[in-house]
Structure formats: C-alpha cells, structure tokens
Amino acid sequence: MKKPNMQSPYAGDQGNVLPGAIGRRKFLSYIGVAGASAAVVAACSKNDDDNKPPAGSIDLGSGDTGILNYAYALEQLEAAFYTQVIASPFSGITANEQALLTDIRDHEIAHRDFFKAALGAKAIASLQVNFSAVNFGSRDSVLATAKAFEDLGVSAYNGAGQLLADSNYLLLAGKIVSVEARHAALIRDLISNGSFADSSVVNANGLDLASKPEDVLKAAAPFLKSVLYAGNLPTS
Questions:
Q1: How far apart are CA 37 and CA 27, in angstroms?
Q2: CA-CA distances (angstroms) from residue 78 to 105, 199, 229?
C-alpha cells in the first residue's frame, strides 16, 4: 500500500479509549450477537498454536481464534487512527465531517472492544501504533489514510470469511464488514463524490475485493510498532 505524503507523528496505545455513548453491551445489542462472547471464549480454549513466533512478535493464534485476533488487530488500528483524528481535527474540518468521522470512530471502538471482550484471555495485547507518516492537520492526509484503512478492512474481512470454521463467526464478520463498507463508501465520497464503488474496490462481477491475511498485514505493518505473527492462521 502506498503511504500518503504525511507528517505530524503520533503513536500510542489506544486500548483504554471508549466514549461513554458507545459500550460493549450497546454494540452487542446493535449487531444482534449478545450471546457471542461466551461462544467465542469457549471455542478459543480449544485452539493450540503449532508454530513459535519470532521473539518480540505477537502471535495472532490459530483456527478461529487466530482469525478473530486478526480482526481485533485491524479494529485496534482503525480505532486508534480515528481517535486521533477526532482528538486533533484537521484544518478546515466542517461540522458535518466532524460528526461523520466521530460516528466512524465510535463504530471502530465498539468493534475493537467487542473482539477484546469476546476473546477474553485469548485476545492479543493492545497494539502500539505508528502514525508518524500521517499529517493529522491535513484533510487530504487524513482522508487518504482513512480510505486506505477502510478499503483494506473491507477486503480483509472478505478474505478471512472463508477461513472461519464456525458459521456463527462468519455471520458476525458479515455484519461488521457491512459497517466497514459503509465507512469506506463515505470516506471515498468525501474525497471524490461518486467514487464510493469504483473499479479499484469492486470487480467486474460487482463484488468487493478480498485480500489474504498476509497481504493485509503487510499493508498495515507501516502503521504499527507492534509486530504481528500470522504463521498459525488457517490458510483454507
């Protein structure tokens, strides 16, 4: 993924940021999976890792646990990004843009906190981000990064769905990716009206693109200080 021309460094752990208006219980009710947390924790206890990760890296895990941690990692990255976007709005931001980006922030935080709670003891640690290439004072820089993250997130969920063994998790992923796709469409239209579903993200069959975890993590790596290990993830 080509990094935009950006400045203004920001890095940190956003694991404890949660606006009062959005909480795990509200999000669980919203997506209709109030019983999913217990099911995820039960399934996680059955997964064992086969390969040892390199020293200093974070092992995503294996099986469905690994895929859920993979999604959790991406949601951590997005939540951290939008938290900073709202904490230091870019120059000239409109009231409408502020409101829309705040909604996206709250969605991403809800996604992140759902996965963290659902995975329980099997959840990976809070990630350290690296936004040194992002100029949070520039609308072009912020929206270009948001576009990259949203397009990447949609293709990541699309690519990971086939790797899930439990159909309940696939249903959950489908509900979340539909929200991520709404985000992607909005960000694209803020940049260029009418570009929400152009050929760079929708193929000739009218389908969203799908990406393998290895390709997604490679694209996300420049925005992370933490090193993720995906060697135990399922491949088919």
A1: 12
A2: 8, 24, 19
Write the CB contacts of 140 (distance below 8 Å, at least 6 apart in sequence).
4
Token output for 191: 């940049």
d(CA 174, CA 64): 15
User: In order of start, what are the domains of the chain with their CATH numbers?
Assistant: 24-229 (1.20.1260.10)
The Cα 52–Cα 89 span in angstroms is 42
- 74, two tokens: 């991406």
Cα 100 → chain centroid = 17
> Which residues fall within 8 angstroms of residue 142, CB to CB, at 6 or more apart?
85, 90, 134, 135, 136
DSSP the chain: -PPPS---------TT---TT--HHHHHHHHT-TTHHHHHHHHHTT----SPPPTT-EE--SHHHHHHHHHHHHHHHHHHHHHHHHHSPPTT--HHHHHHHHHHHHHHHHHHHHHHHHHGGGSPPPPPB--TT--TT-HHHHHHHHHHHHHHHHHHHHHHGGG-S-HHHHHHHHHHHHHHHHHHHHHHHHHSTT-TT-TTTB-TTS-B----HHHHHHHHGGGBSS-EE-TTS---
Instruction: Give CA angle at 77 (63, 53), nearest 5°.
Output: 45
Give the pLDDT confidence of 156-171 residue by residue, as tens digits: 999 999 999 999 999 9
- Give the model confidence (pLDDT) of 28-83 as tens digits: 444 444 444 444 433 443 444 457 888 899 999 999 999 999 999 999 999 999 99
pTM: 0.79
